[in-house]
């Protein structure tokens, strides 16, 4: 996770519950410029995805999903996983949900798993209506106890997304809303890798 700490800092202004760009110090602006200058952005309307520069195994967890099924991260080896931390009250989260759902529908039978981790304190009373409204079919977990956040948080803002490859290594990270156009080429490449 240490390789993503710097990256998380440069996204202070791009997600819910964080400072705006104008509030950044000159040092933060310089760090952001340096970090993003080396990126190949595919969609200017998406948050950029930062690639890991070294292999870092994703931290394992075992949870019970909203649908009652159990889910262990380490059981997903051989598949590509997008771990998305979000909340119903977050405008960028609402913006990216249809994009994630479209990606999931297209690639779920090819080995893509999207796990939505809600940090809504109100729990099911707000998450279930959100799922219905946005026609979400990918697995959802409500992290009331902080089980996932204790391993992947605290985040600099939401949505926060981690992409994990077939071997269980973290490959990409971002804070802020993603688009299908930004995600799809990376997902396709990871799905084509041998596990």
Task: Walk me through this protein's architecture.
This protein is of the alpha/beta class and 195 residues long. It has a single domain (2-192), classed as Glutaredoxin, CATH 3.40.30.10. It is 33% helix and 18% strand. The chain has helices at 2-10, 26-37, 91-107, 124-133, 149-152, 180-192; strands at 50-51, 62-64, 70-72, 80-86, 112-118, 140-142, 160-164, 170-175. The chain has a six-stranded mixed β-sheet, sandwiched between helices. The protein has a two-stranded antiparallel ribbon with strand order 2-3. Strand 5 (112-118), helix 4 (124-133) and strand 6 form a beta-alpha-beta unit. Helix 3 runs parallel beside helix 6 (180-192). The radius of gyration is 16 Å and the shape is globular. It starts with a helix and ends with a helix. The model is unreliable at 1-13 and 18-38 (pLDDT under 50).
What is the CATH superfamily?
A: Glutaredoxin
Order of helices and strands: HHEEEEHEHEHEEH
In whole angstroms, the N-to-C terminal distance is 21 Å
**CATH-derived topology:** Glutaredoxin
What would you say the CATH architecture is?
3-Layer(aba) Sandwich
Number-wise, the strands total 8
Shape: globular
In total, how many domains does the architecture comprise?
A: 1
Low-confidence stretches: 1-13, 18-38
User: For this structure, what is the CATH class?
Assistant: Alpha Beta
Summarize the structure.
By secondary structure, this protein is α/β, with parallel strands linked by helices. The protein has helices spanning 2-10, 26-37, 91-107, 124-133, 149-152, 180-192, and strands spanning 50-51, 62-64, 70-72, 80-86, 112-118, 140-142, 160-164, 170-175. Strand 2 and strand 3 form a beta hairpin.
């Amino acid at each position: 996770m240490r390789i993503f700490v710097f990256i998380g800092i440069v996204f202070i202004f791009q997600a819910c519950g964080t400072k705006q760009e104008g509030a950044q110090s000159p040092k933060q602006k310089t760090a952001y410029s340096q970090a993003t200058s080396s990126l190949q952005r595919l969609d200017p309307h998406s948050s950029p995805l930062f690639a890991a520069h070294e292999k870092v195994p994703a931290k394992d967890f075992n949870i019970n999903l909203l649908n009652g099924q159990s889910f262990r991260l380490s059981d997903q080896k051989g598949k590509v996983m997008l771990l998305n931390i979000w909340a119903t009250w977050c405008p960028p989260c609402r913006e990216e949900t249809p994009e994630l759902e479209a990606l999931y529908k297209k690639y779920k039978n090819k080995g893509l798993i999207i796990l939505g981790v809600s940090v809504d304190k109100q729990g099911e009373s707000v998450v279930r209506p959100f799922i219905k409204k946005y026609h979400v079919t990918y697995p959802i977990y409500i992290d009331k106890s902080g089980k996932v956040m204790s391993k992947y948080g605290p985040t600099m803002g939401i949505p926060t997304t981690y992409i994990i490859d077939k071997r269980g290594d973290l490959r990409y990270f971002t804070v802020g809303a993603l688009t299908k156009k930004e995600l799809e080429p990376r997902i396709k490449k990871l799905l084509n890798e041998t596990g």
